[in-house]
Write a structure and sequence with these properties.
The chain is mainly α and about 110 residues long. Helix content is about 85%, strand content about 0%. It is rod-shaped and about 90 Å long. The model has no long low-confidence stretch (mean pLDDT about 80).
Length: about 110
């Protein structure tokens, strides 16, 4: 459980760093090219309503992608939890089997 918490913390830190870096390069949404110079695309460089619209669509796209990634991550962890629960049940059956053998040995004495 502690390992899961550490992984979640690291993932959130990484994700927020990536978002901050991306937003720093964008500047004001739709205002033209980003910091890098020339990497914003012709519509965004033109600025105005089209640039703002494109920037808003990009933001929406990346939020959706982030949502999808988080859903996949949740699903992965749920599958891991199910696997470990099954493993615990299997090991408990083994423990019970061995306890039964010990009882039988005591009874035979």
């Amino acid at each position: 459980m502690a390992r899961l918490l550490v992984l979640r913390t690291h993932f959130r830190g990484y994700l927020s760093t990536q978002i901050r870096m991306a937003s720093d390069q964008l500047g004001e949404l739709g205002a033209g090219a980003g910091k890098g110079g020339g990497g914003g695309g012709s519509i965004r460089e033109a600025g105005g309503a089209l640039g703002k619209r494109q920037a808003a669509e990009e933001e929406r796209y990346f939020r959706q992608k982030e949502k999808e990634q988080m859903a996949l991550l949740r699903k992965h962890h749920e599958e891991e939890i199910d696997h470990h629960k099954k493993e615990i049940e299997r090991l408990q059956r083994e423990v019970d089997r061995h306890k039964g053998k010990i009882r039988k040995l005591r009874h035979d004495d």
